[in-house]
Amino acid sequence: MKTLVTAALLAATALPAFATELMVWDWKSGDPLAAPYFQKAKEVFEAAHPGDTVTFVMQPNDQYYTLLGTALASDGGPDLFLLNGGAQGGRGLRTRLSWMTRSVL
Predict the structure, then answer these.
(1) Calpha distance 80→26 (Å, rounded)
(2) Which residues contact 83 (CB under 8 A, 6 or more apart)?
(3) pTM, to two decimals
């Protein structure tokens, strides 16, 4: 999970300069055992990018991919999000994410 959060925050450096608040959806930032890591990742990113802020929004684990898919299908949702590998990163979600690839390229 540390690699996923770090990669997501590093990927955020490619966002346009006008992005001052990054909303990151996850399913672990509110977990007492994981919260210190998320807080540290936030602090490190914000120190490296003065003026930018990161807001982690924990979604219910059992509804995460449904909520994420719905948000992305409506052209809404977070700026960044965590994904597990395997089935959750399967064809359905990749299809919904294809608009992001087109807009970035």
Answers:
(1) 9
(2) 4, 89, 93
(3) 0.65
**Phi and psi at residue 91, to the nearest 5°:** -55, -40
For residue 54, count other CB atoms closer than 10 A to its CB: 22
3-class DSSP assignment, residue 47: helix
pLDDT (tens, 9 = 90+) of the chain, 105 residues, equals 555 555 555 555 555 556 589 999 999 999 999 999 999 999 999 999 888 999 999 999 999 989 999 998 898 889 999 887 665 555 555 555 554 444 443
Distance of alpha carbon 92 from alpha carbon 29, whole angstroms: 25
